[in-house]
């Protein structure tokens, strides 16, 4: 879902020059040999995903929805995903902060929580009962599904799909 330019390509050079000259970016360590990727995360896409996850949890009497992200490092993409996820829970499902937040509770008792992706990858293997419905972005979801598939025999035998049951 990202937008990328290969290292040494004209596109990468142009993006790097724009970032340096127009945006004041100075943290590209090796600009001449760097590939560049942009990861768009939108409020609309986040809301659609989290709304579906919460509705699934409600419809199937699940206990929690966990927003898995790396917002401690990627504050404006994955951090925004987490914030927008909680916003959907509050504004569309009447969730209230739990013990002052950040976790929330729906009126029916479902807990909306978040966890940093690397902690989640450990905890889902060591304490799987703590998790129920998971909402995350594409790359994190790929890592998670592959790690969990390994628990049951490997990625070659674990089916997977990305399906939008609402709009097809």
Which strand-content bin applies to the residues?
Answer: 15-25%
Multimeric organization: single chain
Mean pLDDT: 93
Helical proportion, percent range: 40-55%
Question: What's the number of domains?
Answer: 2
Structural class: alpha/beta
Number of helices: 5
Low-pLDDT sequence parts: none
Kindly report the spatial arrangement of strands forming the biggest sheet: 4-5-6-3-7
Largest sheet: 5 strands, mixed
Query: Gyration radius, to the nearest Å?
Result: 19 Å
Q: Give the tally of β-strands.
A: 7
Shape: globular
Task: Name the helix and strand elements from N-terminus to C-terminus, one letter apiece.
Answer: EHEHEHEEEHEH
Gap between N and C termini: 18 Å
Task: State the gist of this model.
Keywords: Glyoxylate bypass, Magnesium, Manganese, Metal-binding, NADP, Oxidoreductase, Tricarboxylic acid cycle. The protein is of the alpha/beta class and 168 residues long.
Q: How is this fold's topology laid out?
A:
Elements: E1 3-5, H1 10-21, E2 36-38, H2 43-59, E3 64-69, H3 78-93, E4 96-97, E5 104-105, E6 111-116, H4 117-126, E7 133-136, H5 138-150
Overview of the structural elements:
- The chain is an alpha/beta fold.
- Helix content is 40%, strand content 15%.
- A hairpin with a 6-residue loop joins β4 and β5.
- α4 (117-126) packs parallel to α5.
- It starts with a strand and ends in an 18-residue tail after the last helix.
- Keywords: Glyoxylate bypass, Magnesium, Manganese, Metal-binding, NADP, Oxidoreductase, Tricarboxylic acid cycle.
- Its cofactor is Mg(2+); Mn(2+).
- Pfam families: Iso_dh.
